[in-house]
Amino acid sequence: MTDAAVPTHCPYCALQCGMSLRPTADDPGVEVVERADFPVNRGALCGKGRTAPAVLSSRVRLTEPLVRRSAGGPLEPAGWDEALSAVAAGLARTRADHGPDAVGVFGGGGLTNEKAYTLGKFARVVLGTSQIDYNGRFCMSSAAAAHQRAFGLDRGLPFPLADIPRTGCVILVGSNLAETMPPALRYLTELRENGGTLIVVDPRRTRTAEQADLHLAPRPGTDLALALGLLHLVVAQGRTDEAFVRERTTGWPEARAAAMAHWPEHVERVTGVPVPQLREAVRLFCDAPTGMVLTARGPEQQSKGTDTVGAWINLCLATGRAGRPLSGYGCLTGQGNGQGGREHGQKADQLPGYRKLTDPAAREHVARVWGVDPDALPGPGRSAYELLDALGGDVKALLLMGSNPVVSAPRAAHIEGRLRSLDFLAVADVVLSETAALADVVLPVAQWAEETGTTTSLEGRVLLRRRALSPPAGVRSDLRVLHGLAELLGHEKGFPADPEEVFEELRRASEGGPADYSGITYRRIAAEDGVFWPCPGESHPGTPRLFLDRFATDDGRARFVPVVHRPAAEETDAEYPVLLTTGRVVSQYQSGAQTRRVDELNAAAPGPFVELHPRLAERLGVAEGDRLAVVSRRGRAVAPARITTAIRADTVFMPFHWPGEGRANNLTNPALDPTSRMPEFKVCAVRVEREETLGD
Ligand SMILES: Nc1nc2c(c(=O)[nH]1)N[C@H]1C(S)=C(S)[C@@H](COP(=O)(O)OP(=O)(O)OC[C@H]3O[C@@H](n4cnc5c(=O)[nH]c(N)nc54)[C@H](O)[C@@H]3O)O[C@H]1N2
Ligand SMILES: Nc1nc2c(c(=O)[nH]1)N[C@H]1C(S)=C(S)[C@@H](COP(=O)(O)OP(=O)(O)OC[C@H]3O[C@@H](n4cnc5c(=O)[nH]c(N)nc54)[C@H](O)[C@@H]3O)O[C@H]1N2
Ligand code: SF4
Ligand SMILES: [Mo]
User: Fold this and answer.
1) Average pLDDT over every residue of 464-472
2) What separation in Å is there between the alpha carbon of 304 and the centre of ligand 1?
3) Angle at CA 136, nearest 5°, toward 135 and 138?
4) Mean pLDDT throughout 472-500?
5) What does the pLDDT look like over 441-465, one tens digit per residue?
6) N or C: fewer beta carbons within 10 Å in the chain?
7) Whose CA is nearest to atom 15 of ligand 1?
């Protein structure tokens, strides 16, 4: 290894900050150095990115396969031959006894494009199962569905982040960017420095909301009413962009009529946002010459997330804030490869290139690339929660790669039980996650800095994460794992372990599809700071900005969707009088499997808590730090009280990063959005009690 720092990207969130890794003599062998030339973060990193090498250390990770040799026995160290044979045998036995759909596959939005592609192909070609889905279903599937419906194409942001400071007004809905993508906060700061305005919609006055010119704090689960109320006011005040609506859209009369049923006074009652604030929001948004609406998990992780995002899109369309420079709707995708992970076939209904599994032409194309009969490809399977819920029922074996649902799935105690009831569970992970600990076989895999691969950031920018050091002996890459399993299951060819070889095949598989990567090469990505898809052909420059001439629908027009408000799947009542919402803190990532192994991050965010307003605390007789029991129809979680005026008095907030008694997902409601099948992580009804402890 040379001493030169290797330019690469962070393993965690969808911002995919550029960083460089420099070799060191000490464990874990590399350190992070600034990579100021990468435009998205210009050297800035959050604490998670800065400390990411700590997880490369053999002190905290898996370094050899583990096998449970007898039911109920312990996980014991094993060689790779034994471990891979056990997985192949477990999957093959289930398929032989119960058919291919008894074998499930669960992937993750953190997996590189190459891995997501190979996992989808492995499920359809080697296992022949339709039962594959991934954790992105918990993340951005509602925004994806709304994008498809309105624009005919789903790419998180239709413009680069660098456009944000130059627009006139941003409405940021349910994103706590200051904690979830700290280096991106700079774009909002620059927006305001340039004279633009920022409106933040969040039931909590977050660090992000503190930056806003106007903060709207709706009751959780009411964003749909809020967006429709704003649209009502836009129409009532004559601020519709009639020419844009006429020339670039369809469906306005119906959408308009649906919105007009949402009178501001009614919207105030539903959302708790006063009418003058609604009017002020419309004024700020419509007075600016250009504007953007950006959503994240707040409005999306609802049982009506697709319609909610649809309502925000309608607002953009009615005001002409879409399909034009410096204007548009975008979703801030979450996971490291949340965008690419949803394009290449680990989703239940999907083939590579964002093709549909039900489309005969798509099946034909991909089957040709894969060298199989199109009729042999299974149809669409179940969504993530439905798949997890079916474990131990008709799905009896599971191969899981890149997710930790014991902590992150809604109604997690139930899902943990489903995982335990499987005939066979294999987990590939870098650490012994809470889910891996339940497995019959655990396969220790290489990490970001130890292998090369591409990710697609929230901007739709395809990036190259480069290998900077060797994995420990005893660890293999996910691609090599899939290669080995395919071989044992009779497919010696078609599952290369070399990432660039996989990417070359992915290019062909995606060619002509909505997410066309055919013009992207490793070499180009390295030379160009990433390439934006669609990129059909090596001479194509890539597409940083979408929809400027036409939308991706058949007629080129954006589609209004008539949506109306409906309540959350679970509302408060006498028994469960408080709303629970859940989310993140800056120093932990997701299920915490990785970041809970980093001392510096644990010191900053040591455990779960329940955020509540002083008025609610007083009513409950609760003081700062008291142990609180939060109880929902699904279960109970216990964590200390954190009292703050930054939250609505009718709502409590818990981060979801921890297992054990403080696991927020003991409480959450797996009510699914009918279109996206996204669970309602952001709202359920709870009771909050002071937990009486011994000696109290
Ligand atoms: N530190 C850190 N950063 C991360 C992650 C992490 O785990 N930790 N995960 C990454 C991933 S995968 C994702 S998806 C993103 C998520 O990024 P964000 O969406 O920013 O994160 P959340 O905290 O889940 O939710 C954002 C905000 O939604 C608000 N909210 C709750 N209910 C509602 C509601 O009903 N309406 C509205 N409008 N807002 C509501 C919450 O108060 C919260 O402040 O972060 C990415 N970055
Ligand atoms: N209550 C509540 N629950 C939520 C949410 C919420 O807001 N509230 N948000 C949801 C959202 S948006 C998301 S994205 C999910 C995320 O939740 P999870 O799907 O659990 O995500 P992670 O914790 O990132 O899990 C990734 C796992 O894969 C491992 N891993 C990392 N890289 C690799 C790799 O390259 N290969 C392999 N094989 N393994 C790897 C990690 O060590 C970790 O164990 O949580 C969802 N759950
Ligand atoms: S903001 Fe996201 S990509 Fe950037 S350093 Fe932090 S976790 Fe990594
Ligand atoms: Mo996510």
Assistant:
1) 97
2) 17
3) 70
4) 98
5) 999 999 999 999 999 999 999 999 9
6) C
7) 334
